[in-house]
Task: inverse folding
């Protein structure tokens, strides 16, 4: 078997679908949300008209929010399933080598990375999940909690004011909108750079859509995981054939669309913050 | 002599009443005859300015033909001058200030108005009608279409059918063209004055004299419009006649003759209103009048008055800020009733600052439908002209942000504060008072509760004293943002050079790969087959 043109499966089908749903809902949420946050810009008025007015933009926002909540819950359910099937107990899942929780290895990798950046050491041998991927992963948890809870407050203000004073809605608005600014800003710059724009991946890494990464690249990018697979003799199990070119093209088109919208939002945010801030 | 008095109306500004009493005809001309006559009088007392009153009345004398005939010939002016005491006794009002009596004649179907008299402070009105001059005497010359003035050559032809079809069909030539002398071959040769309409229309004359038009006329300004410029001459029609230039739908055209952009009044005007006629035509009033044909719609004269139009700076002007509410209230009475009780009314708010009147929010000539989107959005800027801070912070909260996107379904200033009935929230009648605020919220948020109403609709996160929670939340979040972006950004920037190296490494691998094209070819086809 020629290993050179082989691909390693990195993401399960469910995770890929969830990520696509997440992209769609996230972009919808940021576009509709930003129209309100930067309502004093001409762009906001234009987009709001495009969405059919603030009412339908609001419906879209809440619909996308529901999608995102479903994505989140599906992931939690999937974690249960994975725990049962592959690990047996939460301890094994969370303390294992493939855990999403930060561990000693991440601290070493982080320090190693800084040394590597400064030319004082080799590239760390990243494993299944790197520390910045774990950061992104928990950023979603944090965002779901912070934006989600304040969002629900703003969705049902009459209900929540039975328990909280009215000014709580103002506070929730600030938290919701600034945390959303952090989320969009982070995803459309840092996340985009880390996964797509950094020179070795430029312009785009479609692994999140195809789930496949070329074995050659995998070997270099995730040396630790590769070694682990070799040691276990599990590599063959993870090898898959690539998707036909038409499917790849579809994924690239989708990826480009998401990237373009994301960057447009960033430009819009920067424009709004610098030139029309109030 | 018995007398009956019917008070028709009594109001703070004066009273109107009829008085009917028996009189003796001899009393009118030194006791030569003793025919009993009915004196039937209508009086109206109107304060003109403090300390002075208008006094106006008609005395109608009922009597036989002889007396009618006689009364008509009598020089009533002299008589009334002599009988001032008698007139005094008719109303017993010591406050009436009298300078001059003015008698004039006109026939009525009931009897004969022998006198119409007025006392007007600081104003002397000269009226005297010479009877005995029949229209046909005038027409013997003026019926000729060729007749021209020997002075300036203008035509002196009078179309008598015009006059007979006019409001003045029962007025003789000599009643307007006074000073004729019947003993002359040309009775009109003694005329020195132009026709003075104020002989009869005295009240109008007083108003006109005060108006900008009248002031110009008094200064011999060439552009000054006089009665005839608007009303015409012999063919004068009443304002209810659709043919009349003063009929409601014709008034904008009438005023436009001078006030349209580029015309003589418009070029002299230095105020801020531009394209007055055009804007009026496009306004709700203009459309109501000219498109919908509603003759009750406000035209120029409804707001500016017909005869006493004055610039808004003049305290007597109908469009002076103090008077605007009353002027608009002539038609929008219900609104005026609300407005005068509101915080914006000068009757309620005692302040040095200028209070808004109708025109400040609705404009003067570009008034729009208040249920139109444009007006709903503009009105917030109108409130914001005075309430700067509160408007700015409104736009920082949800309602304001939505409205900025161009949607009007959200709560705008007047949805919560009210429009014409606006009151401070401390007033229990206010829509925002403690008792009412929840219900006000409920108009849009049906299940609103007391705490819900505590939402800060004008909050800003820039004021640590007023809104410490918002201020610190905002800066906490901003700190989180800056911190996260700083660390992540730094990480990314440091990564960049190494990543470039890594790219070169990967590329060299691909080149290596391409040196085995045959192998590649077979692999690719393999991949496609599987």
Result:
């Amino acid at each position: 078997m020629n290993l050179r043109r082989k691909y390693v499966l990195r993401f399960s089908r469910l995770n890929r679908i969830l990520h696509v749903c997440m992209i769609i809902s996230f972009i919808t949420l940021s576009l509709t949300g930003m129209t309100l946050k930067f309502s004093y810009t001409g762009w906001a008025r234009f987009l709001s008209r495009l969405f059919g007015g603030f009412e339908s933009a609001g419906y879209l926002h809440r619909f996308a929010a529901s999608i995102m909540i479903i994505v989140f819950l599906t992931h939690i359910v999937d974690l249960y399933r994975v725990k049962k099937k592959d690990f047996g107990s939460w301890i094994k899942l969370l303390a294992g080598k493939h855990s999403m929780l930060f561990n000693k290895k991440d601290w070493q990798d982080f320090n190693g990375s800084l040394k590597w950046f400064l030319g004082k050491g080799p590239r760390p041998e990243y494993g299944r999940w790197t520390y910045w991927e774990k950061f992104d992963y928990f950023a979603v948890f944090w965002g779901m909690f912070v934006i989600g809870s304040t969002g629900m407050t703003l969705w049902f203000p009459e209900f929540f004011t039975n328990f909280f004073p009215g000014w709580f809605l103002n506070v929730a608005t600030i938290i919701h909108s600034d945390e959303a600014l952090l989320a969009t800003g982070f995803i459309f710059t840092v996340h985009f750079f880390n996964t797509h724009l950094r020179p070795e991946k430029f312009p785009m890494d479609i692994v999140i859509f195809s789930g496949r990464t070329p074995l050659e690249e995998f070997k270099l990018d995730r040396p630790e995981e590769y070694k682990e697979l070799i040691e276990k003799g599990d590599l063959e199990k993870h090898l898959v054939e690539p998707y036909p070119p038409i499917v790849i093209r579809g994924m690239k088109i989708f990826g480009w669309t998401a990237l373009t919208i994301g960057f447009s939002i960033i430009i819009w945010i920067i424009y709004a913050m610098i030139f029309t801030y109030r | 002599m018995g007398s009956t008095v019917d008070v028709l109306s009594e109001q703070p500004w004066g009273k109107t009443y009829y008085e009917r009493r028996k009189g003796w005809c001899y009393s009118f001309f030194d006791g030569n005859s003793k025919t009993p006559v009915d004196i039937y009088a209508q009086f109206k007392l109107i304060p003109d300015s403090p300390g002075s009153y208008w006094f106006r009345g008609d005395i109608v004398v009922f009597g036989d033909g002889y007396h009618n005939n006689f009364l008509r010939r009598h020089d009533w002016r002299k008589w009334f001058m002599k009988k001032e005491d008698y007139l005094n006794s008719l109303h017993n009002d010591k406050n009436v200030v009298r300078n001059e009596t003015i008698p004039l004649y006109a026939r009525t179907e009931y009897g004969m108005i022998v006198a119409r008299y007025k006392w007007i402070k600081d104003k002397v009105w000269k009226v005297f009608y010479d009877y005995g001059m029949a229209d046909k005497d005038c027409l013997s010359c003026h019926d000729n279409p060729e007749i021209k003035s020997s002075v300036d050559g203008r035509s002196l032809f009078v179309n008598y059918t015009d006059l007979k079809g006019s409001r003045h069909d029962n007025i003789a030539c000599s009643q307007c063209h006074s000073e004729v002398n019947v003993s002359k071959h040309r009775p009109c040769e003694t005329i020195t004055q132009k026709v003075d309409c104020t002989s009869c229309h005295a009240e109008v004359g007083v108003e006109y004299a005060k108006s900008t038009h009248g002031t110009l006329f008094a200064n011999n300004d060439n552009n000054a419009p006089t009665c005839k410029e608007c009303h015409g001459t012999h063919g004068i029609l009443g304002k209810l006649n659709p043919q009349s230039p003063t009929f409601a739908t014709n008034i904008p055209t009438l005023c436009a003759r001078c006030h349209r952009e580029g015309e003589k009044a418009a070029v002299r005007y230095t105020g801020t209103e531009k394209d007055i006629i055009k804007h009026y035509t496009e306004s709700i009033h203009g459309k109501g009048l000219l498109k919908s044909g509603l003759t009750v719609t406000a035209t120029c004269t409804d707001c500016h008055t017909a005869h006493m139009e004055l610039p808004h700076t003049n305290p007597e002007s109908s469009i002076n800020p103090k008077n605007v509410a009353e002027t608009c209230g002539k038609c929008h009475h219900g609104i005026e009733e609300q407005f005068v009780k509101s915080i914006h009314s000068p009757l309620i708010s005692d302040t040095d600052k200028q209070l808004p009147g109708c025109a400040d929010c609705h404009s003067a000539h570009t008034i729009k439908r208040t249920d139109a989107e444009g007006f709903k959005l503009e009105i917030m800027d109108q409130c914001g002209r005075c309430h700067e801070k509160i408007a700015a912070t409104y736009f920082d909260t949800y309602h304001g942000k939505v409205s900025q996107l161009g949607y009007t379904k959200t709560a705008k200033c007047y949805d919560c504060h009210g429009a014409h009935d606006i009151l401070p929230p401390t007033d229990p009648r206010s829509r925002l008072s403690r008792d009412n605020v929840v219900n006000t919220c409920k108009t849009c948020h049906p299940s609103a509760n007391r705490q819900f109403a505590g939402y800060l609709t004008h909050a800003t996160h820039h004021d640590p004293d007023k809104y410490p929670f918002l201020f610190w939340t905002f800066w906490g979040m901003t700190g989180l943002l800056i911190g996260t972006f700083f660390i992540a950004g730094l990480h990314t920037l440091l990564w960049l050079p190494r990543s470039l190296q890594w790219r070169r490494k990967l590329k060299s691998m691909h080149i290596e790969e391409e040196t085995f094209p045959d192998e590649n070819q077979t692999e690719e086809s393999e991949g496609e087959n599987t």
Summary: The two ends of chain B are 132 Å apart (CA to CA). Residues 468-514 of chain B form the longest helix (47 residues). Residues 245 and 254 of chain B are 6 Å apart (CA to CA). Confidence is low (pLDDT under 50) at residues 1-132, 516-530 of chain B.
